[in-house]
Inverse folding.
């Protein structure tokens, strides 16, 4: 009986602390996560609530957080504004796709060369490629505009895509170099033994293994191009060539110079949807792409 009692007491002693210690920590972690999510989601929720208010309700003083009556007139205004929402969304999508293509096509070979080729001054060249990140891109727009005006790229989607590619390329090269460095050298050595050339190693071996990095580059290029405002404002001067960020600024103008808060918030919600959809679709590649090369 004594041995049985000791065994039962030991089992209770071993099993009880596990749940007791783990439960408070897990609860606090869950509460912290919920708090962070609430803080991050609150602006989007308030924007959506403002977008379904009437014009009078949206500009009421003091403001009402909840709409007094549901109204979709703000979304109708955005859809039919000037050249139409479809035109602006199409322009932004076209520029973003060209930016993605430019970043991927240029950053992949550059990152591969910096990661795999042993050459003098490689680190200096890499730092030189990253140096433009330290320069405010607003300072580059005036000389770029003057140069693009000489070759007829002003007020064209191709010219704006080139500008976005220039602004995004240093970070894209940084990501691709980290992705290629994370691939084991034994795989490259096996490809060399099989007779693969440098170009074949890049296209047949490294690019398929670096898909998370490529997707991360594409995701960053899309989001930055989709949301970029100043270059689009400077390089575009035709109404039919404007992108979505220009729409956000234009649609907010109300009567007698007042801000149409309802239409502005409706356009904000619409502009968020493509970026959110792309991120949710590619998030698993995005996380692994950012962590490439983080652990040696």
């Amino acid at each position: 009986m004594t041995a049985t009692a000791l065994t039962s007491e030991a089992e209770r002693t071993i099993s009880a602390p596990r749940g007791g210690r783990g439960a408070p920590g897990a609860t606090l972690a869950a509460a912290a996560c919920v708090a962070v999510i609430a803080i991050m989601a609150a602006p989007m929720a308030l924007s959506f609530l403002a977008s379904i208010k009437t014009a009078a309700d949206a500009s009421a003083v003091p403001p009402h957080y909840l709409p007094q009556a549901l109204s979709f007139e703000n979304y109708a205004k955005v859809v039919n504004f000037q050249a139409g929402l479809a035109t602006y969304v199409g322009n932004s999508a076209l520029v973003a796709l060209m930016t993605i293509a430019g970043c991927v096509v240029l950053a992949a070979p550059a990152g591969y060369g910096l990661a795999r080729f042993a050459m003098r001054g490689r680190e200096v060249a890499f730092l030189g490629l990253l140096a433009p990140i330290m320069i405010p891109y607003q300072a580059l727009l005036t000389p770029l505009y003057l140069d693009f005006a000489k070759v007829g790229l002003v007020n064209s989607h191709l010219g704006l895509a080139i500008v976005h590619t220039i602004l995004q390329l240093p970070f894209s090269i940084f990501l691709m170099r980290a992705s290629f460095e994370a691939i084991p050298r034994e795989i490259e050595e096996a490809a060399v033994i099989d007779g693969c050339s440098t170009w074949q190693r890049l296209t047949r071996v490294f690019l398929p293994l670096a898909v998370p990095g490529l997707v991360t580059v594409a995701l960053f290029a899309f989001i930055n191009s989709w949301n970029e405002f100043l270059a689009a404002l400077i390089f575009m001067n035709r109404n039919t060539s404007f992108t979505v960020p220009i729409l956000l600024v234009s649609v907010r103008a109300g009567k007698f110079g007042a801000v149409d808060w309802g239409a502005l918030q409706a356009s904000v919600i619409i502009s968020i949807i493509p970026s959110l959809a792309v991120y949710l679709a590619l998030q698993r590649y995005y996380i692994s792409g950012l962590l490439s090369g983080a652990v040696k």
Q: What stands out?
A: The chain has a mean pLDDT of 84. The CA atoms of residues 20 and 26 lie 11 Å apart.
